[in-house]
Amino acid sequence: MKIFAFVKKEIKESYTGWLFALPLVIGLAVFTFYPIVMSLIYSFHDFDGFKRFDPVGFGNYSRLFASDREIWKVLLNTGVFAVISVPLILITSYLLAVLVNRKMGGTSFFRLMYYLPVVIPSVVSGVIWKDILNPSQGAFNTILSALGLPGSTFLSASSTSMFTVILMGMWGIGGSMILWLAALKNIPEQLYESARLEGAGIFRLLIHITIPMSTSMIFYNLIMGLIGALQTNATLVYAPRDGRGIDNSIYFVCVKIYREAFVRFDMGYASALAWILFLVIGLLTATIFATSKWVFYGEES
Fold first, then answer.
1. Which of 126, 92, 81, 128 shows the shortest CA–CA distance to 232?
2. pLDDT tier for residue 6 given thresholds of 50, 70 and 90
3. Is 243 helix (H, G, I), strand (E, B) or coil?
4. Which of 36-40, 206-210, 214-218, 290-294 has the highest mean pLDDT?
């Protein structure tokens, strides 16, 4: 009886809070947890998204490496993209944050301009990039032509597709810039003042104070950047090409998942691919955590 009385008391005291949280709880249950559970179930079935729903056990997972001729190319493309884009975005967004963190006129305006692309939906960004990267009438080639330089084929040719997608991925470095700025603002100014009194220049301040004191944010951005690179979505690749076929040089894992699910209607195999990607991301994240002794979290660490 005491247990029931305690539960009744807790519900009475906190039901208002639960009512406010109910829309979020329902949204997470319907649009996050339910799809996760169902995708795991689908991965063990031959499911076309409509009527066919035949159990195949681990057939979808064994098919991944036994008979899928595309998978190695897909994994190689995704790995190359991640290895190049993650360090590039980390370095450029960090340097950008260091630049706009300086006390000079107009920094607030530039921070706004650099962050603005982050709030643009990915489909809209894809349409914008389609016009910018048009080989014949695009803004980039128009500028190159005005400068007397040869134009680029961008997404129209295998030789330039990967570079173009990496360039498009840097469209949102303003999001990382904001995180870097938060880390830079937390570095005590006294450290810089003491170092300047000892004769330290800008480069030594960056190497010996700014970067070491920002390692916790480097760690966070490294993990989020890696996850984002491995999950490069189909919108980034499809939208600028008007939904046309994907070049083999930019055939990534998430693009393959999309094609298996919504072009070939093999939901079971697409779900298995998604779970394999989840396990790979989890393994890489765990590895980064296991080697994170270089991260400085403050005086207590």
1. 81
2. low
3. coil
4. 36-40
Look at residue 67 and give its three-state secondary structure.
coil
Fill in the DSSP letter of residue 49.
Answer: S
Residue type, 119: V
Higher-scoring residue by pLDDT: 48, 243: 48
> Tokens in use for 51?
């009527």
Chain centre to alpha carbon of residue 124: 17
Q: How many CA atoms lie within 13 Å of 36's alpha carbon, on the beta-carbon side?
A: 7
Surface-to-core class of residue 32, CB atoms within 10 Å of its CB (0-12 exposed, 13-18 middle, 19+ buried): exposed
Q: Provide the token pair at 162.
A: 């990967």
- pTM of the complete model beyond 0.70: yes
Distance separating alpha carbons of residues 78 and 82, to the nearest angstrom: 6
Angle at 180 between CA 176 and CA 182, to 5 degrees: 120
Q: Cα-Cα-Cα-Cα dihedral of 203, 206, 208, 213, to 10°?
A: 180
Q: What is the 3-state secondary structure (H, E, C) of 132-165?
A: HCCCCCCHHHHHHHHCCCCCCCHHHCHHHHHHHH
The two three-digit tokens of residue 253, written as one number = 């894992």
Three-state secondary-structure class, residue 47? strand
**For residue 46, what pLDDT is reported?**
92
Q: Average pLDDT for residues 208-231, to the nearest whole number? A: 89
Is the pLDDT at 140 greater than 70, yes or no? yes
* Per-residue b or e along 125-150, where b marks 16 or more CB atoms closer than 10 Å to that residue's CB: bbebbeebbbeeebebbeeeeeeeee
pLDDT of residue 264: 87
